[in-house]
């Protein structure tokens, strides 16, 4: 099996944007050019507007349009800076507690020596690659070779970007399940790929003693099979899943592996929430399934493991034939990830086992999860049972707001979940993330029924949020 290594040629893909609002930060000329290019995209007659020049931002950029980068991103709209100061942030997934002190100390030590302030090798600091190798031990079914099978990136996001830059040829189809972590779409589009979406489907199982059933989301394998074409290059997996909290079962992953073998595909397995798997469930590393090591790049993140999302340290693990091209791309994108935080990540990985860090962290997260689940249970609102990660997907389709409620312009053209989330943040005082952002345009109406709440906050904060959320009962249809 040989994968073709591709340059990251940019092509115009066929998807259009679904709002005709030009971003507000554009100049008036750029706004007109944007509207004109957008109108054309929608198949209407173009309105008169000056022709874009070489210096008109965005006007001709299929790459930004197809990557949804002409919209304001959901993280910015629902950033705490745009919400009332007293609003509790359960939106963007970052913690209100720090990474462990013993890990932070390593960054301080690194800054105190000259070398710690300079470039790391593009592949990553040797100490961190060794720590990654030792942390995983034989979890990949073999010991990892830190010289060949591990690459450090500037956060998992940049690792993904490098992998797609390395492997996508123009028009290559990349299958992902919906809902999907929003970054996949732009990163694939920017690198010339064509995202193909396979929706996951919710089902409800009764739970004794609870008002709300256990909602779990599953794959329709016929749908997945139908999505595969001769242009399919790879499948993107994400387990534990953001935003569903789903942990894919061994049986599901084996069935996917079967299709991967049959159609000679590559896999990107985003496992950044690997340390947060609840209820004694098993985190199955896709790369360990028969024949999958050779085809899989696994993505990890120090930010998620150690409550350090701002460190921007992640890694790719896989066979040399897949890591080398990703490294070649990464070297030309950022050259290297930042040095002192790589040292902190290394120290964290080195000491985590001995300190029982992950066991304790998982217990704390289980308590945090319970606070939010109980709040939704009391409200009688349906939610996806979070088997892993720190997200709960809540069905908000019954939330109603006054007809004259004022919404900001940034919500124009967005699905109703944006309005519900805005209303909840401003009226109830708890922010969340509207889930239509995690769907393609065609399936956005499905996502519009849901909002995602993060429980990566201390228990007291979550209790206050849970109390506030009870007021939602007055706003349900
Ligand atoms: N992964 C985090 C989340 O889903 C943050 C994403 C981001 O800020 N781009 O909340």
Automatic annotation (TrEMBL):
Keyword Transferase: yes
Pfam families in the record: Aminotran_1_2
Keywords noted in UniProt: Aminotransferase, Pyridoxal phosphate, Transferase
Region: Disordered, residue numbers: 32-53
GO cellular component: mitochondrion
Family: Belongs to the class-I pyridoxal-phosphate-dependent aminotransferase family.
Protein's name according to its UniProt entry: PLP-dependent transferase
